[in-house]
Amino acid sequence: MEVVIDTNMMMERNILEQARKFGTPIILSSVIEELKRLSKGTGKNARKAKLALEIIGKKKMSIVMTNKRGDNAILDYARDNRCTVATNDKELLKTLKEKEIMVLRLRQGKYLVED
């Protein structure tokens, strides 16, 4: 099973190792675009985004190209490919649940659980 990693999750520690417990982590091109945009800023989120991009490069993650952006890209890919989504984004979580797509959330900032 594939696990689509959302931008906010990709900026968490050890997320790829956690996601691998549930399946193969997948990074969409829309997530890469958002991480690049965030990395140009300053502050904590910019540093996390830069680190996430470095990790994706070092782990040689395969990036799935999408035509859509943001949550729509994640929703469409997850629905079309019947995969799980790892996110803590409240709006996205709600929509995923409405569409009966399996969701993984980060608990206690340490581990992923099915939601």
What does this structure look like?
With 115 residues, the protein is an alpha/beta fold. The protein has a single domain, classed as Rossmann fold. It contains 6 helices and 6 strands; from the N terminus they run E-H-H-E-H-H-E-H-E-H-E-E. It has a 6-stranded mixed sheet with strand order 3-2-1-4-5-6. Strand 5 and strand 6 form a beta hairpin.
List the helices and strands and how they pair.
Blueprint (H helix, E strand, L loop, with lengths): L1 E4 L1 H4 L4 H6 L3 E5 H11 L4 H15 L4 E2 L5 H12 L2 E3 L3 H9 L4 E5 L3 E4 L1
Parallel strand pairs: 1-2, 1-4, 2-3, 4-5
Antiparallel strand pairs: 5-6
Features:
single chain; 6 helices; 20% strand; 115 residues; Rossmann fold
Stated plainly, the CATH topology is called Rossmann fold
What order do the helices and strands follow?
A: EHHEHHEHEHEE
Secondary structure class reads alpha/beta
Distance between the termini: 16 Å
Q: Nearest-angstrom radius of gyration?
A: 13 Å
Overall number of structural domains:
1
- The gross shape turns out to be globular
CATH class categorisation: Alpha Beta
Q: Note poorly predicted spans.
A: none
**Reported CATH architecture:** 3-Layer(aba) Sandwich
Approximately how much helix is present in the residues?
40-55%
Characterize the biggest β-sheet.
Answer: 6 strands, mixed
CATH-assigned homologous superfamily: 5'-nuclease
What's the short version?
With 115 residues, the chain is α/β, with parallel strands linked by helices. Helices cover 50% and strands 20% of the residues.
